[in-house]
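batch_manifest entry 22 of 60
target: Isoprenyl transferase
source organism: Curvibacter symbiont subsp. Hydra magnipapillata
requested by: lab member K.T.
priority: normal
notes from requester: please return tokens only, no post-processing; we will run our own comparison against the previous entry in this batch. if the run fails, retry once and flag.
--- input ---
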Amino acid sequence: MSASVSPSPLHVAIVMDGNGRWASKRFLPRLAGHKQGVDTLKRIVRACPPRNIATLTVFAFSSENWNRPADEVSGLMDLLAGALAREVSQLKQEGVRLRFVGSRSGLSEKVRQGLHLAELETSSNTGLTLNVCFNYGGRWDIVQAARALAERGEDITEDSLSSAMALSPSADPDLFIRTGGEYRISNFLLWQSAYAEFFFSPVLWPDFSEIDLDTALTEFNSRERRFGKTSEQVR
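--- output ---
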């Protein structure tokens, strides 16, 4: 078995960072970097099944990204709508189940409808689950889960809170990758990443390749995951 293929199905989460810097280095508008980033995501999605990655969760637009320049935010919304129109039928053919994780508030009716239809179109697929975190924040996720349990009068426990998270029913990520050379998680999957292995890549997201994914997976497969136990217990 290749060192980059996990012996058991994995959930990989990625902060796709570096689109704007990639564009700036080429004297292009920031939106050009985001467009290139969509192409990279398409390649990485197709690279997942052969590497035994069953779930891929990506950070596409954070709840803090609304603070970016209005033209960039508008361009990102248009980019999302266009990508949905172009790519959903291909994802459906490839067996990918598409889920959008995050708050729908603040999104236009056009975007909300596009998200709903994309999820509906791919809901019966049983291949890779692609969770796209859009208008998402880890703190928002914890608060909305706790509020939902309180409104239903349910006890707030680790299990109940996990089940009320927006990412549910996907399991917690095994491997958390951030591209672009930054060393922070930026309010992404705060609850779910408690025992994830972290890998920080210097590669800007538009340049991230299957080889870079293999580098992260090889590093992941070399680590001993103890979950609070000793090495002797794990072995």
